[in-house]
Design brief:
alpha/beta, 7-stranded parallel β-sheet, 8 helices, 7 strands, globular
Length: 265
């Protein structure tokens, strides 16, 4: 299937590794020019080199910056032709807040979580959505978490901040931009084999006293698919949501969790 997005420009956040990298790889594979943003320049450049080698027909730029800061967003948004107006696709993604006990989180911890996982995506949407609407095409995909549908006790910071973003997107996605060719969807990962799962497993191990490998085995046994997801699989879903064929999907929370969520809705 031709996704119809060859030659488009995408901004992908948190793109040096994990799910963000999976999205950047998949979009480049569809002929999309990619601006990759991440804080660590060394890993970012290595990942970009891999994409250039695999997809030689596309342009790949890197921005080593913290997307949760105003300066980082300005640097990223300026790459493809000037303050966000030239991006056709935006994939928002920021590292999730640390796990822990809510009793230990002060106001600063909550503000940091909300800033990274709610306000930063909103700022990126605000900076790009009108340009997309004027051109008649736009795709915004927010990488959130399956915890939005099934909260995880040790991820309270993430539960709260990402749920706030979900509520915001539910409204703005159904505003006038929907008739102008712009869609906004949330992509909710379950357990994928990334650095993030290593962090949450470590937190769970410290809380329960069980070895990380045993917790890993238990978790995978509870997933109907029998395994963790692969970032490449996640990226493929993201690329579809960015395609011409997904034009009639907006304001949705797309769950990718190997069947782990037990609910009907």
């Amino acid at each position: 299937m031709d996704f119809g997005i060859t030659g488009k420009w995408a901004l992908v956040c948190g793109a040096s590794r994990g799910l963000g990298l999976g999205c950047a790889q998949a979009l480049a594979g569809e002929g999309v020019n990619v601006v990759m943003v991440a804080r660590g320049s060394e890993a970012l450049e290595a990942s970009a080199a891999g994409i250039r080698a695999a997809s030689p027909g596309v342009q790949v730029f890197t921005v080593a910056a913290d997307i949760t800061t105003a300066e980082g967003r300005a640097a990223a948004l300026g790459v493809a032709g000037g303050p966000g107006t030239a991006f056709d696709i935006v994939v928002t993604n920021a590292g999730g807040p640390p796990p822990g006990d809510f009793r230990n989180w002060d106001r600063e911890a909550w503000i940091k979580a909300v800033d990274a996982n709610m306000l930063t995506p909103i700022e990126l949407i605000k900076a790009t959505v009108d340009g997309m609407a004027q051109r008649g095409f736009g795709r915004i995909v927010n990488i959130t978490s399956s915890a939005v549908k099934a909260p995880i006790d040790i991820l309270g910071l993430s539960n709260g901040a990402r749920s706030g973003l979900t509520g915001f997107v539910a409204g703005v996605a159904r505003s006038g931009i929907a008739a102008q060719g712009v869609t906004i969807n949330n992509l909710l990962p379950g357990k994928f084999d990334t650095d993030r799962i290593a962090v949450t497993l470590k937190g769970a191990s410290e809380k329960t006293g069980q070895p990380v490998e045993e917790l890993r085995r238990q978790q995978q046994a509870q997933i109907p698919a029998g395994r963790y997801g692969r970032p490449q699989e996640f990226g493929a879903i993201c690329a579809f949501l960015c395609s011409q064929q997904a034009a009639y999907m907006t304001g949705q929370n797309v769950l990718a969790d190997g069947g782990a969520y037990p609910g009907t809705f």
